[in-house]
Amino acid sequence: xxxxxxxxxxxxxxxxxxxxxxxxxxxxxxxxxxxxxxxxxxxxxxxxxxxxxxxxxxxxxxxxxxxxxxxxxxxxxxxxxxxxxxxxxxxxxxxxxxxxxxxxxxxxxxxxxxxxxxxxxxxxxxxxxxxxxxxxxxxxxxxxxxxxxxxxxxxxxxxxxxxxxxxxxxxxxxxxxxxxxxxxxxxxxxxxxxxxxxxxxxxxxxxxxxxxxxxxxxx
Length: 219
Hints:
Layout: E1 18-19, E2 28-33, H1 47-56, E3 61-65, H2 72-79, E4 84-88, E5 91-93, E6 100-104, E7 107-109, H3 111-115, E8 123-127, H4 145-151, E9 156-160, H5 166-180, H6 186-196, E10 208-212, E11 215-216
Parallel strand pairs: 1-11, 2-3, 2-4, 4-8, 8-9
Antiparallel strand pairs: 5-6, 6-7, 9-10
Helix pairs in contact: 1-5, 5-6
């Protein structure tokens, strides 16, 4: 038998789990660009730099980590004290397990490493492929990358259910941050973005999904 140590939280009542529909307006965004191109032995993502620049302008304070300086420690440090953490770039499958990992400059960072992080931003946005995809091996307990950020302390994580194109990611996630920066709660923000994209060809909006630990009041 295997025993896993898990955190347990006790709520005094169900209402303590309910968040208001209009959240406090976030002021600090931390953006992390993952390396791409020949130097990273991966496909070039030319839209990522523009994506991060545009998103950074929406918030009062920006902390930006360049692709050359990305590391697990850098992600954790940039998230500390931030209201929103945005990560854009490549994911890759681990050779041994096939689990998704973030393709950082120092090497692939697994869900295990992410789950062990501390002081995670309450809202995390993962602009990368398959960040909500879990292992197909039912005999293993493996978190998705989005699930790992929740385990690290994030309350809400927006990720992807399938691969997403560079240009589509830039457009969709910028639209999402326009809503978030105004103080719109994450579920309402994502819903608004998806509704606005219904008539667009390709259906990239279908790939976005929210993983949340919060019950939102809708009345």
